[in-house]
Design a protein that fits this description.
Length: 376
């Protein structure tokens, strides 16, 4: 009876916006650099930010990638009584998984683990799960249970319970991943969380939005709508070039009135699960030259911290709109070193958190569009 009362009280909020706070923790790289382990780690585990967007080799393998700079996560709960987990709300993938008590890997032992025996609403399955990362994998099994995200719940949500996790996940500041891409991006037998939110009538609009800040607190993901308090000016809408991976077309990237990258248009994926802005090697190296960055022996693009105020804006021209990033947005500092938030990878672009901190982002599934507005 108590559980039914909770369901009814939450269901009454279905016309409201559901704001889930996002915390900004230390990235894997920050943690390892503080311990003097980063050089060893990056040599042992190569990182390719485009891996998770590669085409699946078959229906059982979903390419993803580990992100050593990713820091944003929110809290969700699974089961009855609820068990809480830190998860990345990732627009670049569609699956939802957390560590489980079935897993004895070091990465699992360093994070919260779901115990199905402690949930009265858990339903098991014999369906195996394999998620391939750039340097390893997560294996597990699928299960079903109630999912709570802030004040909204999803019944019978399928999710992955890990049985093995790769070593490099040990230092991740979050436990698992909650994918917000399309069902076409999901592993077989997965119905993504937001699909179920819509199908069960939990949200009033078939869209969600992100507001990311540079502070430890203040970031949010909003399920079912937008909030003008988080942006200034109107939202500029951009149609998806395909209903997959939140992909759009950019016309060019301009610095000091010169087209320096994405000449003649290019594809870009809007991804909350990628920390930096990723692009083809030639284009990224050209941007480095224009902003005065040099690449050190570790592969990082370095600039003088004292020159940030003198560095040019990087302007993204998309669907007839201009989105400008000042140096204060695309340069980040670790200790006394200032690095440029662009990196090489693949033959397409990824607009990650460096871009999304500057622009409030809306992911409209009903109309297959992405919207950007200047973040408040």
């Amino acid at each position: 009876m108590k559980l039914a009362v909770v369901f009814l009280s939450v269901a009454g909020l279905s016309e409201c916006l559901f704001k889930i706070p996002l915390l900004k923790g230390k990235s894997v790289r920050q943690t390892l650099e503080e311990r003097g382990l980063w050089d060893e780690h990056r040599t042992k585990f190569s990182y390719d930010p485009t891996t998770k967007f590669n085409n699946r080799l078959d229906t059982e393998k979903e390419p993803l990638t580990y992100a050593p700079l990713q820091t944003y996560y929110g809290i969700v709960s699974i089961g009855n009584p609820p068990q809480s987990f830190k998860v990345v709300f990732d627009t670049g993938s569609a699956d939802f998984w957390v560590p489980s008590v079935y897993c004895d890997s070091a990465a699992c032992n360093n994070h919260a683990k779901f115990n199905p025996n402690m949930s009265s609403t858990f339903r098991s399955s014999s369906i195996p799960l394999y998620i391939a990362y750039g340097t390893g994998s997560m294996t597990g099994v699928l299960g079903y249970d109630m999912l709570m995200i802030g004040d909204v719940y999803v019944q019978n949500q399928v999710f992955g319970l890990s049985e093995t996790e790769s070593e490099y996940l040990v230092y991740m500041p979050y436990d698992g991943i909650l994918g917000l891409a399309f069902i076409s991006d999901a592993t077989e037998d997965f119905t993504p969380v937001f699909n179920n939110l819509v199908a069960q009538g939990r949200v009033s609009q078939n869209l969600f939005s992100f507001y990311l800040t540079s502070s430890e607190e203040g970031s949010v993901v909003i399920l079912g709508g937008t909030d003008p308090a988080y942006h200034s000016g109107s939202i500029q809408w951009i149609p998806l070039s395909q209903q997959q991976k939140w992909q759009i077309e950019m016309q060019s990237i301009v610095i000091s009135e010169n087209t320096v990258a994405c000449i003649g248009s290019c594809s870009a994926i809007v991804d909350t699960g990628t920390a930096l802005i990723v692009g083809p090697t030639t284009d990224i190296n050209n941007i480095y030259g224009w902003v005065g960055a040099y690449v050190d022996q570790s592969g990082d693009a370095i600039v003088s911290c004292s020159n940030i105020d003198l560095m040019p804006d990087v302007i993204f021209q998309i669907n007839g709109y201009t989105f400008s990033l000042p140096a204060s947005a695309y340069v980040y500092q670790f200790g006394s070193t200032c690095r440029v938030g662009f990196e090489t990878g693949g033959d397409f672009w990824i607009l990650g958190d460096v871009f999304l901190r500057e622009y409030y982002s809306v992911f409209d599934r009903e109309n297959n569009m992405v919207g950007f507005a200047k973040a408040a």
